[in-house]
Q: What sequence folds into this?
């Protein structure tokens, strides 16, 4: 027994070393930088230690804007994309003919490059001197007045960002959920049918609990993914996100490091630690809630 | 509730894209299940037993034919309106619900005038649980139960709505041998107690014979024989039924009839009156052999197996289809083990003749030569 234990640890050692060198050590480093004022990575010097970096970041209107943007993005896109993905998967699993074709079509955005999709969205939504963009043409068709979704009002830009994010993350969710639905043994549905269970009740009382681990997985990874959003905003609004008021927390960290206003690894570290704390808190809450509602069989 | 199946046929479209031949899972099933009886539906795997059950409960629609519960035509009725309780082969207990929730699940579906209060539901669930003696397990999840307990929960769930008909699809096949014996007695007891018309599907002839009032033997979707278990055993209509029923199985020999004498090899075994000369299959039940020093059937003796009350004589005969001829004789008989051969006479009512091609039974008048 003892010997086996030792062996087990030995097997885990390479992964530990790897994670230690490339994850845990840098994480600790970032944590340390976040308390070192004016850290300079070239000269490895700093002025002082303390909470100043946090105070600066928390008072930086760009950071607050980024936090607000990120939270809006998370709160809107995670439930909506999961919900839509569930609806589409249910529809997919209830049709027989052409199911594979539809599955492929729904999966296409996943294998398409983010920036390429972003380009398509620009074309759909952007107002230029020559064209109002397809969406605006449609709005005008129905008697509305055109909106500039890319350089216009905040809500319009946020709408495009959310729409885009949902569009990009849905295929993976649909893939996971269709296979989760397919893995539910049809015998349960037969049993429920013989007992006269309505379709809605079958869904609520049988289907949903049975695929709950997968839904939970999607929600957790969805939250984490949305909190880490950055490239989507860049694809739509370009690299100067602060000017567009469309920055995200990760975008803010990036800008602090490498952006035009960059060169502040201490502020970036503080923001990164804040993001880490937020994601950790949300994930813990998720885990707590899931204890009651997720059925591992 | 009497169940009438009228020319019931179920065809499935072919899975094979090349041949468009349909799979006929059930062919022209015509039978009336008397009220309050337990009917055993028996046949090898793939013979259409489950399909028949699914037709009765409404999960599948018949291609042809009609189904009546009592005088009601239920052919086009959805399963939930038929009032059937179904126990699935792997029980299909909802794994995320407790035993109690599993049992009350069907009750929660009731609507309108039938709607029950929570207290009523619990009461009904407890009644059903008592019937199958699982009232102490109500708060467990299915994966915390043994196979036998799960099986009881499944029966309780099927019974809780007091169905008009109880259908059991191979309910014992997931249990170990001991539990299987126990549970089949249990099912019999519950059926007797509730007097619900019950159809019990199994591929195990022992199971079907021991608890059924009537057995229906099926093969390739076609009903072979229907009758009381003992009657079917004593009087099979064809070789398939004769082979399918009985443990140890019937011994089948190649034989021929010549001038109303039945020959197995060179031995004239029996006088069979009224049978024209032909090649036949001869089926002899293991208990149909009698040791006799000058008996007509001479077999090569391999060994004997003592089973207490009886002994099982294992021998071989060149005309036998299987390499072993198994006969069961009373332990009081003495057998000369030193001898290479053993001679038997056969009981005429334990020997059946079957047509060489059609494998149908050939009946003869029993004028024994002994
Ligand atoms: N849904 C189906 N589609 C096509 N063929 C089926 C289907 N269900 C059953 N069959 C075929 O019908 C026959 C009878 O099946 P089944 O009733 O399940 O047999 P049993 O329960 O006696 O083992 C089998 O040959 C099986 O392959
Ligand atoms: Mg079956």
A:
């Amino acid at each position: 027994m003892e010997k086996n234990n030792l062996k087990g640890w030995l097997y885990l050692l390479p992964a530990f070393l790897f994670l230690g060198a490339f994850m845990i050590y840098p994480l600790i480093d970032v944590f340390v930088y976040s308390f070192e004022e004016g850290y300079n990575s070239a000269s490895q010097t700093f002025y002082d230690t303390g909470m100043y970096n946090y105070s600066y970041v928390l008072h930086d209107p760009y950071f607050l804007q980024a936090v607000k943007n990120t939270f809006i993005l998370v709160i809107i896109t995670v439930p909506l994309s999961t919900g839509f993905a569930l609806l589409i998967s249910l529809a997919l699993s209830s049709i027989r003919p052409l199911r594979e074709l539809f599955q492929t079509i729904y999966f296409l955005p996943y294998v398409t490059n983010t920036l390429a999709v972003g380009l398509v969205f620009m074309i759909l939504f952007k107002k230029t001197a020559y064209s109002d963009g397809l969406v605006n043409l449609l709005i005008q068709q129905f008697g509305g007045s055109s909106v500039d979704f890319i350089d216009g009002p905040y809500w319009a830009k946020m709408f495009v960002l959310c729409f885009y994010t949902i569009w990009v993350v849905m295929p993976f969710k649909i893939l996971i959920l269709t296979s989760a639905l397919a893995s539910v043994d049809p015998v349960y549905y037969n049993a429920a049918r013989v007992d006269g269970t309505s379709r809605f009740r079958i869904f609520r009382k049988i289907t949903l609990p049975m695929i709950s681990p997968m839904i939970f997985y999607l929600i957790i990874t969805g939250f984490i993914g949305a909190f880490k959003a950055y490239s989507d905003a860049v694809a739509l609004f370009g690299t100067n996100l602060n000017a567009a008021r469309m920055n995200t927390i990760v975008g803010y960290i990036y800008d602090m490091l490498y952006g035009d206003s960059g060169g502040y690894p201490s502020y970036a570290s503080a923001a990164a630690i804040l993001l880490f704390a937020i994601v950790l808190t949300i994930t813990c809450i998720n885990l707590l809630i899931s204890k009651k509602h997720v059925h591992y069989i | 509730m009497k169940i009438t199946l009228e020319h019931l046929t179920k065809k499935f479209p072919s899975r094979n894209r090349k041949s468009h031949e349909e799979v006929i899972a059930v062919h022209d099933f015509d039978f009336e299940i008397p009220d309050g009886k337990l009917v055993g539906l028996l046949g090898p795997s793939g013979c259409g037993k489950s399909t028949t059950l699914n037709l009765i409960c409404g999960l599948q629609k018949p291609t042809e034919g009609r189904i009546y519960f009592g005088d009601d035509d239920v052919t086009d009725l959805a399963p939930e309106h038929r009032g059937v309780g179904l126990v699935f082969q792997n029980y299909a207990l909802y794994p995320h619900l407790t035993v109690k929730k599993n049992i009350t699940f069907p009750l929660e579906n009731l609507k309108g005038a039938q709607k029950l209060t929570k207290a009523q539901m619990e009461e009904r669930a407890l009644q059903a649980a008592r019937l199958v003696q699982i009232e102490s397990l109500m708060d467990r999840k299915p994966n915390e139960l043994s196979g036998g307990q799960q099986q009881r929960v499944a029966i309780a769930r099927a019974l809780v709505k007091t169905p008009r008909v109880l259908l059991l699809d191979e309910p014992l096949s997931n249990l170990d041998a001991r539990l299987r014996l126990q549970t089949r007695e249990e099912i019999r007891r519950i059926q007797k107690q509730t007097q619900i018309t019950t159809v019990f599907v199994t591929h195990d002839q022992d199971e079907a014979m021991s608890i059924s009032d009537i057995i229906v033997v099926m093969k390739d979707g076609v009903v072979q024989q229907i009758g009381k278990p003992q009657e079917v055993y004593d009087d099979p209509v064809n070789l398939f039924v004769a082979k399918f029923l009985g443990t140890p199985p019937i011994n089948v020999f190649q034989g021929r009839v010549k001038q109303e004498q039945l020959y197995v090899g060179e031995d004239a075994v029996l006088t069979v009156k009224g049978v024209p000369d032909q090649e036949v299959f001869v089926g002899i039940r293991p208990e149909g052999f009698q040791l006799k020093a000058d008996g007509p059937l001479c077999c090569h003796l391999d060994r004997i197996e003592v089973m207490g009350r009886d002994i099982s004589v294992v021998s071989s005969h060149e005309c036998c289809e299987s390499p072993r001829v198994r006969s069961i004789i009373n332990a009081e008989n003495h057998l000369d083990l030193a001898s290479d051969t053993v001679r038997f006479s056969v009981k005429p009512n334990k020997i059946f003749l079957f047509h060489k091609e059609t494998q149908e039974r050939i009946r003869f008048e029993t004028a024994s030569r002994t």
